Amino acid sequence: MWGILLLGGAAIITVWWAVRLVLVDETQRRLPDHLTLPAALGAVTGALLTEPVLILGGLAWAGAYLLGRGIGGGDVKLALSLGVLAAAAGGVTGVLAAVVAASAVTVVRSVVRRGKAVPHGPSMLVGTFIVVFHDTWQGALSHLGGAS
């Protein structure tokens, strides 16, 4: 029972954090340190305590953004935490899928807004959500298949 309560609390905090990031990025066109740095620290710490290789997912996504143009520092810091999460959900493929999905969502949003620049942080969250949801769905299906 305590595990479910802890998981529910973590989910509520994560949703609050993601909504806050989206609202700030959409209105102010920035991802503030007080939202990105604790998440990065938490993701790296969690990975170090459980599966250190997951940090490579965060470093890969953040590193790719450091090399690119037009990506802000907030996006780089967000990429660190989301890359760890995407790696936990789907390994190298999960990180690549999250990056590609985030880019695709940003392009589609820009087309819908007729070429106007759009913040990238919300798209990064959507891309990571897709990877995590897919991994969770696959795990549930395989668990159901194994139970028969």
List the helices and strands and how they pair.
Layout: H1 2-28, H2 33-50, H3 55-67, H4 73-112, H5 121-147
Helix pairs in contact: 2-4, 3-4, 4-5
In brief:
84% of the residues lie in helices and 0% in strands. The protein is mainly α.
Characterization of the model:
This protein has 148 residues and is mainly α. The chain has one domain. It contains 5 helices and no strands. Helix 3 packs across helix 4. The longest helix is centred in the middle third of the chain and has 40 residues. It is globular. This is Prepilin peptidase. It is an enzyme of class 3 (hydrolase). It comes from Corynebacterium lemuris.
Oligomeric state of this protein: single chain
Q: Averaging pLDDT over every residue, what do you get?
A: 91
Largest sheet: none
Distance between the termini: 25 Å
- What integer value in Å does the Rg equal? 16 Å
Residue fraction in strands = under 5%
The helix content is over 70%
List the domain count as a whole number. 1
Number of helices: 5
The overall strand count is 0
Secondary-structure content class: mainly alpha
Please trace the helix and strand order, writing H or E for each element. HHHHH
Give the low-confidence spans: none
Shape: globular
GO molecular function: aspartic-type endopeptidase activity
Domain Prepilin type IV endopeptidase peptidase: 12-106
InterPro entries: Prepilin_IV_endopep_pep
Keywords: Hydrolase, Membrane, Transmembrane, Transmembrane helix
